[in-house]
Structures are given as C-alpha cells and as structure tokens.
Write a structure and sequence with these properties.
By secondary structure, the chain is α+β, with helices and mostly antiparallel strands. The chain has helices at 7-10, 26-50, 54-68, 77-85, 92-101, 106-112, 120-126, 164-167, 176-182, 289-298; strands spanning 133-135, 145-152, 168-175, 188-191, 208-212, 232-236, 239-248, 251-255, 265-268, 273-283. Helices cover 32% and strands 21% of the residues.
C-alpha cells in the first residue's frame, strides 16, 4: 500500500458554527455541493487504495449491521456507488460502517463533509447556559498531541505565587490518551450558571468547578472561615446547584453566601436533592470583561 499524506492532511479544514447574519447564497450552496461531491470522490479513492470493491464493503457492512442489530448500518453496492459519484450525504449509521471498514477515525470521515468535531468544545464554550449544570471535557482524537509538563523546575518555591510557565523546566508533546490513562484527576466538572448567585461573590457566575464524586456526604466539622467551609455540587429535580449545605432531619438545606441575594432553599434529601460531590477546585474570572473595558475607558490619557 503506497504511502502518502494522511486523510486529515488531505482534507481542508472547514470552520463550522460561525455566526452569520445573511442567508446562504447560491454560491454557498454550489460550494457546499462541490464539497460533498469531493467527499464522495475521496471515499472512492480511499476504498481503491485499500484494494476492496463495493461488493466487499456491502458484505462487511452486513456483518456490522447484524452485530449492531440495525439494518441502517448496511451499505448496499448501488448505494455506495451513488455516494461516491454524487452529492448525496450518508447517514450517521453508514458513516459509522465506512469508518470501521476503512479503518478511519470517525471524526476524519465527518471532516470530509465539513464537520470538524474538534470544534465542538469551542462551540460549547460560546453557547454558555444560564443554569448551573455539569460539563465534560470530551476528547475525539485520543492520538492528538498536547503540550504537557514533562519535568518541573526543582528550584521552584511552591510557597510563592508564580506563573505556571516558570514552574515547568521541560515541556513535551504527549498524546491525550496517555494523560487520560494516567487518570491524574478523579473528578468531574461543573459550570456555575450566569444567573446563579448562590455563592457570589465567593464563586462568581461563569466559573468552572472541579467535583470529587467520592465525597458525597456532608461533614459536620467546624471551619475557620468561609474559604474552609465545604462546597457541594447538588443535583435537583429541575437542575443543579453549587452551595454550602447542611443536613437536618432528612432535609438538605442549601445555604447561600451572606452577601448573595439568594435565599436559603430546603429539599428532601435523596428525593428532591442529591449530593453529586464536593467542590475541590475552581477556575474563575475575578474581573468581568465589562469591568475591564470600563477600567480602560476611565484610565487617564498619557501625558505627551
């Protein structure tokens, strides 16, 4: 089998999900159809390089359909011929079968049709929700390389605040799958809704919190300050909450910050509310973008 550029290198990246204020024009439609037609041609090229026929694909896809218990995974000979020579778009089931038969990443096949799954995370960040909710960090390409601290500077004093870049002596390129395999953090993550002021100003809306699911019981220990008081991520019937908590006579009490405009809420523990885990970390802005812009506007002009 001859060597050559990878599928990801040969397929042009197409940005999706960008905001637009106009309706698609005729030229946009023609361009889209040309891209889909080119996708079919590339699938045909890949099949030819693998040395398999459309009949082979039909037989192999039939096995997949039987294993999955869904005939939609089957790819007939005439259907594959049409896909390779027209602007028809396959269903997700048939793309799944082609991914398995051609030994390609599912994301790479989607990219042929202008869908880049690597951008989903960016789109999720742009589409922020007002309600507090769990969030996830999804990795579609486990072989993708990322920069990762390989060796830390032994002379760095952890007692003093500093830049992370100055803590690391050597950075290296490490596969994401390796980092996941190491299981560095046994945590899930949550997002504080833009209108959730329960623990404001201690936890500001728009913050991301790290949650330890192994700690789901409320500890009645004493704390020296509000910063030491345990914070819990709570699942409710109609959403989620991030709050200080108390448990009395089977009632789970969500206690807001004294400076918060929110009131104390009370739910039946285990029925109306359940502890997801204890918050162990937070990523939070301490200056809102609007405040930063206002500070720049109020800044005195430079003396000439």
């Amino acid at each position: 089998m001859e060597s050559g550029p990878s599928l990801a290198q040969r397929v042009p990246r197409v940005m999706i999900g960008q905001k637009s204020t106009r309706e698609p024009s005729l030229s946009d439609t023609i361009s889209s159809r040309r891209r889909v037609l080119r996708a079919g041609e590339q699938l045909k090229e890949i099949r030819a390089r693998l040395g398999i026929t459309t009949r082979d694909v039909a037989e192999l896809s039939q096995k997949i359909a039987e294993s999955e218990g869904n005939i939609e995974f089957h790819i007939s000979n005439p259907w594959l011929t049409e896909i390779e020579n027209s602007d028809s778009i396959p269903s997700i089931y048939k793309l799944y079968s082609l991914s398995a038969i051609y030994h390609l990443k599912f994301g790479d096949i989607l990219q042929l049709y202008g869908v880049d799954v690597q951008n989903i995370g960016n789109r999720q960040m742009e589409m922020q929700l007002e309600q507090t909710h769990p969030t996830c960090v999804e990795v579609f390409d486990r072989s993708r390389m990322v920069s990762f601290p390989v060796r830390f500077d032994r002379g760095f004093d952890v007692a003093n605040t500093n830049l992370l870049s100055r803590m690391v002596e050597v950075w290296g390129e490490v596969p994401i799958a390796l980092i996941q395999h190491l299981d560095i953090r046994h945590s899930m993550y949550g997002f504080i809704g833009l209108k959730d002021l329960t623990l404001h100003p201690l936890l500001r809306p728009g913050s991301f919190v790290q949650i330890d699911q192994n700690t789901r019981k409320i500890h009645a220990s004493k704390w020296r300050s509000e910063y030491d008081r345990p914070i819990y991520f709570v699942e409710l019937r109609d959403g989620y909450a991030c709050s200080w908590c108390e448990l009395h006579d089977g009632q789970l009490i969500l206690v807001p910050h004294p400076l918060s405009p929110c009131e104390i809420r009370q739910f039946k523990h285990g029925n109306e509310a359940e502890i997801v885990g204890r918050v162990t970390g937070v990523a939070m802005r301490i200056v809102d973008p609007e405040e930063a812009a206002l500070d720049d506007a109020l800044r005195l002009p430079t003396q000439l």
